Structure to design on (164 residues):
């Protein structure tokens, strides 16, 4: 997996102060996408063990609430193995003291059986639809997208939306 950049102190991609990684690779190619440079899976830098250590170190301060995956699409098929590995390492290092948010253009039904989904706390699902753009939505860019509480959804066997 490649990534475009890591933002060490981000307040725009999930609740609280976060570390955000923008991964490379996306097959949705949504018209109006804010990050079309991330569509190419070969763009950016390779994710290596030093990158993993950098992420863990950036997550250590108490004021950092968690990790956000954006992109590109973190759940693009070629990214899933490494994103899962990162989630496992974060949980091993921090337990549930840090939360994990993920944006994806896939819908819940397309990824609900992904082996590593249980590591993620909040999932913003669905492709960006320019005709449904709504800047008033918390964490979503278009009205078709949902902010899903993953743990509650997995427990209940149906989508449970995030409640602030």
């Amino acid at each position: 997996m490649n990534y475009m950049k890591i933002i060490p102190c981000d307040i725009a991609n999930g609740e609280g102060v976060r570390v955000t990684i923008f991964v490379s690779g996306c097959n949705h190619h949504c018209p109006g996408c804010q990050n079309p440079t991330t569509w190419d899976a070969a763009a950016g830098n390779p994710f290596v063990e030093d990158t993993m250590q950098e992420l863990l170190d950036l997550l250590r301060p108490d004021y950092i609430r968690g990790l956000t995956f954006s992109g590109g699409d973190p759940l693009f098929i070629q990214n899933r193995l490494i994103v899962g590995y990162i989630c496992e390492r974060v949980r091993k290092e921090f337990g549930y003291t840090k939360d994990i948010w993920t944006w994806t253009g896939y819908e819940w039904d397309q990824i609900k059986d992904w082996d590593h989904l249980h590591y993620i706390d909040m999932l913003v699902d669905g492709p960006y639809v320019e005709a449904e753009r709504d800047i008033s939505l918390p964490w979503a860019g278009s009205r078709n997208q949902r902010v899903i509480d993953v743990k509650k959804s997995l427990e209940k066997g149906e989508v449970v939306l995030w409640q602030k």
User: Anything to note?
Assistant: The longest strand covers residues 2-10.
